[in-house]
Amino acid sequence: MAQALMNYLDPGAIVLGLKAATDQDVIRILADRLESLGYIKPSFAEAVIAREARLPTGLPLGGKNNVAVPHTDPVHVLKPGLALATLVDPVPFSNMEDADEKLEVKVVFLMALNDKDMQIEMLQEIAGTIQSPEVIAALIASKSVEDVSRLLG
Amino acid sequence: MAKQKTVLFACGTGIATSTVVAHAVEDAMKERGIRFNSRQCKATEVAGQIDDVDLVVTTTQLPKDLGKPVITTLAFLTGIGKADALDKIEAALRD
């Protein structure tokens, strides 16, 4: 399977082995990276956090290695981009299909989106990637941006 | 030939996730020889769009008692339970 997620991921917005206490911490840390790289406006992080409370983005993968894909409206975005964090200890995100259920998330893809077609492509690539438990396990085990690039390139 | 049924795909914003799901379902149903009309909307818009719809497929929680069959599934994003979700959709479309 093609793993073309590296086409969207900025190496400067990949944070591996992050220690964070909450979903909000993860979102703020990744948003800081995207902001300093010129992808988003300063309003982005809080908008993502507010959306997550209403429309959560946790995706259950049937085990402990769940994924979340937080994002928000195009108005907070300057250009499309993707940030990635792998977490040392899982952080709870609410389940997209059942907001009352918390998922233990180990991988977070923070999406900066302002183009409908690219948004769909990016989400499709993420879906293709997370449907392989081997790839997710290898992603969590990745120690360097080069590892991630080999895996998702 | 029976009239094509209409499936309403819903997600939080009615754009990205529902498109990914709609494409996946369209491709899989084509392989099973089933065609249907496809529409998308936000979860909050479903109640107002339900009248001519035969089936709703959603990735996010919807109001209860919409009066039409609803399949809530993340299978087309996560891959988990995909065959089961497709069987349910096929059954609803052949019904």
Automatic annotation (TrEMBL), chain A:
Keywords, sorted A to Z: Sugar transport, Transport
Domain PTS EIIA type-2 residues, every copy: 7-153
Pfam families in alphabetical order: PTS_EIIA_2
The name this protein goes by in its record: PTS sugar transporter subunit IIA
Taxon lineage: Bacteria, Pseudomonadati, Pseudomonadota, Alphaproteobacteria, Hyphomicrobiales
From TrEMBL, chain B:
Pfam families: PTS_IIB
Species annotation: Phyllobacterium endophyticum
PTS EIIB type-2 domain mapped to chain residues: 5-95
UniProt GO molecular function: protein-N(PI)-phosphohistidine-sugar phosphotransferase activity
InterPro entries in alphabetical order: PTS_EIIB-like_sf, PTS_EIIB_2, PTS_EIIB_2/3
Protein name: PTS galactitol transporter subunit IIB
Keywords, in A-Z order: Phosphotransferase system, Transferase
Biological processes per GO annotation: phosphoenolpyruvate-dependent sugar phosphotransferase system
